[in-house]
Every structure is written in structure tokens, then in C-alpha cells.
Amino acid sequence: MRGGVAGTLKRRMSLRSYLDGALFVDQRDGVRPPLLALHGWGRDRRDLAGIVGDHEALLPDLPGFGTSPPPPEVWGAAEYGKALAGLCTEHGHGPYLVVAHSFGGRAAVELAAANPELVSGMVLCGVPLVRLHGPSQPRLSLRVARFAARHGLASDALVERLRERYGSADYRAAQGVMRGVLVRVVGEDYSDLLPRVQVPVALCWGENDTEARVDAARRAAELLPTLVALDIVPGIGHDVILQAPDRVRAAMRQVVDATCAS
Question: Does one domain contain both 148 and 22?
Fold first, then answer.
């Protein structure tokens, strides 16, 4: 992963805005291939700082996280992917090796499927890519309250209080439009999109990941036409980016080698 000039290269980094202030990005000089490093839900660009090494890299705060403002309306992964395509086009220097964790990987798959010319390869870590089972039903009391609210028999405030009580920690922490984003993306499945990803892809997963389970990763691996590797890291949970960075970097090397060989 290290280029011949890595030892003498003086690294520069700066926080810059792109897309008329919609994205704030830690932009780093370095060796090629350039990286696009994408964080998970509720996190920011700093999660990926230990992964990029000596590479030229863009580490954006995705809209609604870190220093980047929320999107103007409820987005799904496709809209996040379009924003990333705009970032890559505005910055230039591509195609990019995309390294993405969790929520960031949803947007990465949309980016690679729609804009293959901008992506040279991908490493996806703990990304909820496919659903093996239908979505779980909300609690009965919340379902009843929503039904009642639709018919004018209960207030929206009651529905929101029940969502606060029974929603996930991510839902309770989200504010404004980001709650709608969370609800939308949690319901998404990328089974039809993965076969359209034509760049080399490596999957790096924590064995004990409860948010993006290993059996779902194995199913995603079957759908990817250019899978390079599926690495299941023993004893690691969802935060494989932080807990096993060496394994993520090894996956990056595998993807780069596959890209050079193709």
C-alpha cells in the first residue's frame, strides 16, 4: 500500500467544504491510489483517520454528521451516493478506492453501482447490505397509536413519545430530518444493487457483529460479481474499523492488487 515516495512525502491535510458547503471533508495529500473513507452512523471522519496511512484521501463528514449540515430533506443511501459522486467529481483525482464502515457502506454501494468510473475498488466493513428476514414490527402500543393518529383519534405528540420510548439508541439520538433518514435507510436492502457493482470488493467483518451479522455478509458476498475476499475477524464486533485496522488495511491491499491485475 505504500508508494515509492511515501518515506519522503510531507503529508498535508486540510478541512475543506465541497458542494457549496453541503460536505466538509478532511482532504489529505499522499500517494495513489486515492482513498474515499466513509464513516458509520452517528460517527464522523475521524473514525477512518487510522486507516488511510500515506494515501491521498478524502475523509468526508457525511451530511448530518460531524461538521457537515444535515441534508435538506429525508435522504436514502441513493441520495448520499449522489452527494459522494458530486464530491469525487468536484475534487477530481479519481477513481477512488472506497473504504466504508456501516452506514457509509450503504452510500458507497450506491456510488459504485451508479458511477463506476469514480470507483476503482471497495472495502466494506460491517455494512447492513442485505436483509435475511423481514423488518421487525414496532411494539403493539406504537402501532395502535399510529393507526389512531391517522384517523384523528390520537395526537402526533403521543406517537413521537412512544417512538422515543421504544426506539433504538440511534433513533433517540437523531434529531430533525436525520430521524427520517435513519428510518428510511434501516428499511433499505441492496440485494438488487450488489450484482451491478463491477469493481473489486473485499468484505471485512467482525465475527461478533450484531448490527450487520456475518450470515448477511456471506449472503452479500454471493451477490458480488468481483468479490476479492471475505475476512471474518475473530472476537471483534461492529467497530472493525477501530478494533482491527490492520485487517482492514490488508483488505485494502488485496483490492489494490486485484485492481492492478485486472
Answer: no
